[in-house]
Design a protein that fits this description.
Blueprint (H helix, E strand, L loop, with lengths): L4 H6 L4 H6 L10 E6 L3 H13 L3 E6 L4 E3 L5 H5 L8 E3 L1 H5 L3 E3 L3 E5 L4 E4 L4 E3 L2 E4 L3 E3 L27 H8 L6 E6 L9 H16 L4 E6 L7 H11 L4 E4 L7 E5 L4 E4 L4 E3 L2 E4 L3 E3 L1 H5 L9 E2 L13 E3 L4 E2 L7 H19 L7 E12 L2 E11 L3 E3 L5 E2 L8 H27 L1
Parallel strand pairs: 1-2, 1-9, 2-5, 9-20, 11-12, 11-17, 12-13, 19-21
Antiparallel strand pairs: 3-4, 6-7, 7-8, 10-18, 14-15, 15-16, 22-23, 23-24, 23-25
């Protein structure tokens, strides 16, 4: 298959770092950079800071001693991955000179430039990176609280509830049973994630429970890579998946864990043997308590730097930030982290920030040897904009015929594996 500009972007997760580093090579002023959160944004920031700006003193505050990725978690449902294969430790970051603090950050004092830890110790900073991820909006769906999630798992925050909780229920589902998923309105973590999950559940059911049904209740009328997903569902899982958008009474307003029912906007009661509820979300509490979040619950940033729009000398990355049209994805957080660190190094040296260029690649597995993707390039100035013609989605089935279509989808799945290995190796290798 010819290598297009789009494919080069999709296949090169390190491109963002190469893009920003040369423009700040003169920035050599020392400074204490503290990073809260060890996910795609925080771990990427720590690694990039140590590799490109070794004069910086870097501290990573992360309560957990390991990180389980949301990407590739859905493959655990299909039986293609185990949880250990998507879980990574921080030892190699420590070996690179990152100071690791495995405690919970409980407060930020922007005036004193300190982060308070759970044990009461204050960690001083000159520049702070906040990449804390998300909190779930318990109660946004009537009846859905943390207790309800034991029967109706979300499995959307690995540190709170691993995807294995849903996998266990899926494997115990009766033959011919019904899997129900409630999907939130935008914005939320990983826009294609629920639809890859539907696909991976369908792949498992096709092999082990072929008479089962999947009902997806969606608070939106459209979703990321929708034509590609629906092409694949029709081809791979005919008759198994029913997707209902908001205009078709797909918005879930309430749930009843006792009866395993979802109640839609217009009163339909949809019962499942397994019910996966993905509730609305917001930035994690540490960001909200520090005054970094707007009324929406998400954190506004300056598009040219990803510095907080509300509190100086703090950068907010990843899912917690308001960065549309960039999605809340792992690769988006990775590229934001590299640019933020370059801007921090420049600010400590009294230099102007480098030009703001961001990248995103998002692959989805839809079936065995079947992958699809969406990519984009973004610029930040007074606002974030997608560069016209910079990316797009994989070609639809109608544009690919016979063996060519199968080979294209197989290669996309291979590219997805390569992307995952490269980005996790960069963060934790």
């Amino acid at each position: 298959m010819p290598i297009s500009r789009r494919r080069l972007i999709a296949a090169a997760p390190l491109a963002a770092g190469l893009a920003v580093a040369p423009s700040v090579v003169r920035a050599q002023a020392p400074g204490r950079v503290v990073i809260i959160g060890g996910g795609f944004g925080g771990a990427s920031a720590a690694r990039f800071a140590r590799d490109r700006f070794p004069h910086l003193d870097v501290t990573l505050i992360e309560q957990s001693r390991s990180f389980t990725t949301c990407p590739y978690g859905n493959l655990v449902l299909a039986g293609r991955r185990d949880i250990g294969s998507i879980t990574f430790g921080y030892e190699r970051l420590a070996a690179r000179g990152v100071r690791l603090v495995h405690q919970r950050a409980v407060a930020i004092d922007p005036q004193r430039k300190q982060v308070r830890l759970a044990d009461g110790v204050d960690v001083p900073y000159d520049r702070l990176v906040v990449s804390p991820g998300i909190d779930l909006r318990w109660g946004a769906i009537e009846g859905y609280d943390e207790a309800a999630s034991a029967r109706m798992p979300h499995c959307w925050v690995p540190g709170l509830q691993p995807v294995t909780a849903l996998a266990e229920q899926l494997r115990a589902m009766p033959q011919g049973g019904t899997f129900v998923m409630a999907i939130p309105d935008n914005p939320f973590r990983c826009p294609p994630g629920p639809y890859e999950r539907i696909s991976m559940v369908a792949e498992y059911l096709k092999r082990h429970n072929p008479r089962a049904k999947i009902i997806a209740l969606d608070a939106k009328n459209g979703f990321s890579k929708q034509p590609l997903f629906q092409d694949a569902w029709a081809e791979l899982y005919p008759g198994m998946i029913e997707w209902r958008g908001a205009s078709n009474d797909g918005r879930v307003m309430a749930v009843n864990p006792a009866t395993m029912e979802c109640v839609t906007e217009f009163g339909d009661r949809v019962k499942g043997d397994v019910v996966n509820v993905i509730p609305p979300q917001m930035a994690a509490r540490i960001a909200r308590d520090a005054g970094l979040a707007a009324q929406s619950g998400w954190c506004p940033i300056k598009p040219a730097t990803f510095e907080s729009a509300q509190v100086p000398d703090i950068w907010v990355l990843g899912d917690a930030s308001i960065a549309a049209p960039m999605p809340k994805s792992g690769f988006a957080a990775n590229t934001q982290a590299k640019h933020a660190i370059a801007c921090i190094a420049a600010s400590l040296a009294g230099q102007a920030p480098p030009p703001a260029v961001y990248f995103n690649t998002c692959y989805s597995h839809v079936g065995e040897d079947y992958g699809i993707s969406i990519v984009g390039v973004y610029r930040g100035g007074t606002q974030l904009t997608e560069v016209e013609g910079s990316g797009g989605i994989s070609p639809r089935n109608s544009a690919l015929e016979g063996e060519r279509r199968a080979e294209h989808r197989r290669l996309e799945a291979l590219y997805a594996d390569g992307w995952y290995d490269a980005i996790t190796g960069e963060m934790f290798g």
